[in-house]
Design brief:
disordered C terminus, alpha/beta, 2 domains, 17% strand, 11 helices, TIM Barrel, binds phosphoenolpyruvate, binds manganese (II) ion
């Protein structure tokens, strides 16, 4: 259910409608727009009586939302979501005209490796740094990440190089830590349908990047995002990272078709991860170009300077010079597609 307020509706009228919704035992989600405020309603078990709500002061119309997902849909919010990342002086946004590139190793392995790669990522002009401190590994015997010590290193990366930090939380305990240290919480493919974790991330005060599940349909992915918004976190970006198919020439099949499919129904920004999407270093740059060309809002790319010695995902990690090539190509592509790339290194760089 969606309430569309009149263009000139006052704050008091909006608050009045919200109070009325709460008095019915339901949850209002006011969504200010360029023209008017919409108020999404969640928590109803069955259909609501439209005429009761349409008659409230300041209401233009009350509509049923036709899709199973509501708050993530364009029906509820026709303007694209733009997410500010990190301290405002970093000037990073996701979903605006500027493409965001998040780059870094699969895992934070130690301080030296992380600072060394971060310096090269910043020099290439990427604005965000990735690196897992909590790693969801297929084998319980594989390196599981440095935990909080890894998060401290990531915070140092932000301080020294002015890069926004995105890193994964794998459970509620790690989410509480990631929320303190990082600028964006990554929820991984394996946790896309971990509903307790989604609800917890929905209560977090930091933006969330929700990766697509290994075999998730578009609707399942959007419903997972709906958990985050329904708990009050509207700062959500989606990330396509490839799905399982019968193809065996790459680790996963990067589903670039999903980018325009998301954009047709949702206002959430959509990023693409060609590293996990292909699993092969030589495929990453070509698929990154394709992702930008198809309309993605940015990229998540694994970078390592000594990938042969990486503790995870070395095979798909590109070298820093390949990241430079990718950034140069993206700078060439941006004006053709009415997008922007940050000129060179981050303005806030202090390292
Ligand atoms: C990662 O980004 O390193 C990762 C584990 O990704 P995914 O959840 O997509 O497998
Ligand atoms: Mn990885």
């Amino acid at each position: 259910m969606l309430i569309v307020m009149k263009a000139g509706a006052s704050e008091e009228q909006i608050a009045g409608v919200c109070r009325h919704i709460e008095s019915l035992g339901l949850k209002p989600h006011p969504i200010p727009g360029a023209q008017r405020t919409a108020i999404g309603i969640t928590g109803n078990k069955g259909a609501l009586e439209l005429s009761d709500l349409a008659g409230l002061d300041g209401v233009a119309e009350a509509l049923r939302v036709s899709k199973p997902y509501k708050l993530v849909s364009l029906e509820v919010k026709p303007e694209k979501t733009v997410i500010p990342i990190g301290p405002p002086e970093l000037g990073i946004t996701i979903g605006g005209p500027e493409w965001v590139v998040m780059a870094g190793p699969c895992a934070v392995e130690n301080r030296e490796q992380t600072l060394r790669i971060a310096e090269q990522v910043a020099a290439a002009g990427a604005r965000m740094f990735r690196g897992g401190a909590f790693k969801p590994r297929t084998s319980p015997y594989s390196f599981q990440g440095m935990g909080e010590a890894g998060l401290e290193i990531l915070a140092e990366v932000r301080e020294r190089f002015g890069l926004g930090i995105v890193t994964e939380a794998v459970d509620e305990a790690s989410l509480a830590l990631v929320e303190q240290y990082a600028d964006m919480i990554q929820l991984g493919a394996r946790n896309m349908q971990n509903y307790a974790l989604l609800r917890r991330a929905g209560k977090a005060r930091k933006p969330v990047m929700l990766k697509r599940g290994l075999a998730a349909t578009l609707e399942e992915w959007l419903m997972a995002a709906e958990y985050l918004l329904s708990e009050g976190n509207y700062q959500v970006a989606l990330c396509e990272r490839g799905v399982r198919t019968f193809s065996d020439h790459s680790r996963n099949t990067l589903d670039l078709t999903v980018v325009p499919a998301v954009q047709e129904v949702s206002h959430l920004p959509v990023l693409v991860d060609p590293s996990h999407g292909t699993g092969r270093r030589d495929r990453v740059v070509p698929l990154a170009r394709a992702a930008l060309a198809v309309g993605a809002d940015g990229l998540l790319v694994e970078v390592h300077d000594t990938p042969d010695r990486a503790l995870s995902d070395g095979i798909q990690s590109i070298y820093p010079r390949q990241l430079e090539q990718l950034m140069a190509e993206a700078r060439g592509l941006a004006p053709l597609l009415a997008r922007r790339m940050p000129a060179t290194a981050s303005p806030a760089r202090r390292g």
